[in-house]
Design a protein that fits this description.
The protein has 410 residues and is an all-alpha fold. It contains 20 helices and no strands.
């Protein structure tokens, strides 16, 4: 039971009512200022209440870019100060923000014709939503049922990172995709009641289950992510080294997550049981059994949606790992142009990319080992000692794992 939010509710109520009646930029900014002063623990319990007038503002008849940008900024502040603990709220806002970035008239995945400032505000808001959601919600969200929605989000974020001109927007899109893939250990927020060992063990089990679930889901997106990020990495050097570095780092994180050797071969685990428990925790007044029946009923009632899920789902068999590795080899070979990039930080990121993949994916990406070894051999002669050092270390570790210390002479 959380703290009593009554006092905070009394402070927010008149401002929320004012925004509902008149969603002007000034009123929305007044609400945003109030959100910055309210107790975060109270605000977490009032997320749905505060979102209501803001969603009305985004649906108003005379919606301008200014009102839309101000409203999205206010929602970002809400997600920064509070945590989303309801799956329905998370799904609704995630899908809505992705749709704001999408064109409804052009091809699927096409970007909306809106100002760059508004796109940036939406991407930042989406990142905050992903950062501030609870671990339980995250676990229930990454399920095959939502593969089409997740696939759409990945497509939109990749399009932003590849096609936009504004460097800060491209960087924010790459960062948001990193949050979506739960890279850097960002698996979700969860209240800590104390240092109880049993609770810590339960939390760790949940984290591992969520991470495995994310890896399974993102297996469907590895080809598209790899090709798009490779185009970014090998693109015009005028785009700036920061974009290239972030794309390299993101790609290595996604491959290390999905193609990790620990997933080979696929063995039955209890992850399904853990995930079903997560779903039941975020569903009100329904048992896990009724939840499964509801999901099955929803899918059966929409054959087109069911076909999309089936087409996107991936069975990570040994054959799939080997076939994917062979295809990735062709893409990774294109990174040879980056080994001569004029910025040493880009070359350092490339060396770290190869090192990380070789540490985590030597078996699953056997087809790519020689390609990355060749890249590292070239980087051992780099003028910058950091680049040369990590390249030598990576090759030495690879030689030890292969049981032949003389395979790569440095």
């Amino acid at each position: 039971m959380g703290p009593d939010p009554s006092e905070s509710f009394r402070e927010l109520r008149p401002v929320c009512i004012k925004v509902s009646k008149e969603p002007s930029p000034q009123n929305i900014k007044t609400l945003e200022d109030k959100l910055r002063t309210v107790n975060p623990a109270h605000l977490t319990q009032l997320v749905e209440y505060v979102l209501f007038p803001l969603k009305l503002a985004l649906q108003s008849a005379n919606l301008t870019n200014e009102v839309q940008e101000t409203t999205v900024g206010c929602i970002e502040t809400l997600f920064t100060r509070a945590h989303v603990c309801q799956l329905a709220t998370f799904e609704e806002m995630f899908n809505y923000l992705c749709m704001l970035l999408s064109s409804t008239e052009r091809s699927p995945g096409a970007l909306a014709d809106i100002p760059e400032e508004l796109k940036l505000a939406i991407v930042k808001c989406l990142s905050r939503l992903l950062q501030g959601s609870s671990l339980v919600v995250k676990g229930a969200f990454y399920s095959p049922r939502l593969l089409p929605i997740l696939g759409h989000a990945v497509t939109v974020l990749l399009a932003l990172s590849e096609k936009e001109k504004a460097r800060n927007l491209r960087l924010s899109a790459l960062e948001c995709l990193s949050f979506l893939a739960c890279c850097n250990g960002n698996l979700g927020w969860e209240p800590r009641a104390g240092a109880d060992q049993a609770q810590d063990e339960d939390r760790e089990a949940l984290q591992n289950a969520v991470k495995d679930s994310v890896a399974q889901i993102f297996a469907s997106f590895v080809p598209g992510i790899s090709m798009a990020l490779c185009r970014v990495i090998t693109g015009d050097t005028k785009q700036g080294h920061a974009v290239i570095i972030q794309a390299i780092d993101l790609w290595s994180d996604v491959l290390s997550l999905v193609m990790n050797d620990k997933h080979m071969p696929i063995k039955p685990t209890d992850s399904k049981d853990v995930m079903s428990q997560l779903i039941s925790l975020v569903t009100e007044n329904k048992s896990s059994e009724s939840q499964e029946n509801t999901e099955a009923s929803n899918l059966n009632s929409n054959s087109e949606k069911l076909d999309k899920v089936r087409n996107l789902s991936v069975d990570r068999s040994i054959t799939w790992f080997h076939d994917t590795g062979s295809k990735l080899k062709i893409v990774i070979e294109r990174l040879s142009v980056v080994s001569a990039h004029p910025n040493w930080k880009v070359r350092l990121s490339l060396a770290k990319f190869c090192h990380k993949i070789l540490v985590n994916c030597t078996d699953s990406l056997q087809a790519c080992v020689s390609t990355m070894a060749d890249l590292l051999v070239g980087l051992t002669e780099d003028d910058y000692s950091q680049v040369a050092s990590i390249s030598r270390t990576a090759l030495q570790e690879l030689s030890q794992r292969l049981g032949n210390g003389e395979q790569f002479v440095i």
